[in-house]
Amino acid sequence: MFANLLTNAAKYTPSGGSISVSAKRAGEMLRVAVKDSGIGMRREMLPVVFDLFVQGRQGLDRSEGGLGLGLSIVKSLVTLHHGTVEAHSNGPGKGSEFVVMLPATMTSPVMVDAATAIVVEPGHQEEPAGRRVLLVDDNEDAVASLAEALSDLGHAVEVAHDGPEALAKLETFSPDIALLDIGLPLMDGYELARRIRHDARLAGIRLVSISGYGQPSDKLRAREAGFDDYLVKPVDLGVIEKVIADVRGTGEAPN
Q1: Backbone angles phi, psi at 156, to 5 degrees
Q2: Residue 31, SS3?
């Protein structure tokens, strides 16, 4: 989580700027702040900056790329550790501060969901629960961050940035699930989904669309193109994890 915060701070702080990290005890919590003198954020971005695919700083300097998924990953990790994270900024050009609050001590037993717990006996190698995942998105920053996060979770991930590249990947990679952005260059996500559905070799792939539009007509169009699931941006990383986890391995879609 702190690697992502520091990466963002370095990326959006110009040469000659400053970045500081501070930590102190706050009651039963540990307060860690990553502060920079960089390009800052508009006030309206602060409540949503941790949402998936939100790229608030992109408008200030598109050449630097967007926030990608880094801050969504930060929020997910902080939540897993029973903490909170907040973003602060006085506006464009006035820097940013991200404050993470984490429990300083564990005062109660950690609860484990028995349905998802994996127990490995000594000398026994548990079969990995990863899935083969194809990600198709022309936002290179966002898709690279998501691919890294999913790889860390044990999935085998391939990335494409447009429809033709995705079809080329599918010649040698047989995914269990494919997450397709709708607004792709050269060939939109609907057309890519139709081509995948017309290929008998790829019949078992679970197709998930990711779109900025969520009207009933948009969802109907996605269904007609062959999508199984329809996610509307911004999408929480936990939702993507659940969609992938619900898919069986070996290319079989769930019942």
Answers
A1: -95, 115
A2: strand
Beta-bridge partner residues of 32: 23, 100
CA-based nearest residue to 175, from 207, 150, 221: 207
Residue 169 lies in a domain: yes
156 plus 202 within the same structural domain = yes
Domains in the chain, number: 2
Q: What is the pLDDT of residues 198-231, one digit of tens each?
A: 999 888 899 999 988 888 898 999 999 999 999 9
**Could you give the CA distance from residue 232 to residue 53 in angstroms, rounded to a whole number?**
10
Per-residue pLDDT band for 111 (boundaries 50, 70, 90) equals very low
For the segment 175-180, the average pLDDT, to the nearest whole number, is 96
DSSP state of 190: H
Tell whether 96 and 141 lie within a shared domain.
Answer: no
CA 244, CA 46: separation in Å to the nearest integer?
29
Separation CA 34–CA 218 (nearest Å): 40
Question: Residue 68 belongs to what domain range?
Answer: 2-103
- The DSSP line for 61-110 is -GGG---TTHHHHHHHHHHHTT-EEEEE-SSTTS-EEEEEEEESS--SPP
Q: CB of 43 within 8 A of CB of 53?
A: no
**Res 51: pLDDT:** 77
Averaged pLDDT for residues 8-13: 89
Q: Sign of the C-alpha dihedral, residues 201, 187, 69, 115?
A: negative
Last-in-domain residue among 52, 87, 103: 103
Cβ-in-10-Å burial (0-12, 13-18, 19+) of 91 comes to: exposed
CATH number at residue 232: 3.40.50.2300
Q: Can you give the CATH number for the domain in which 68 is found? A: 3.30.565.10
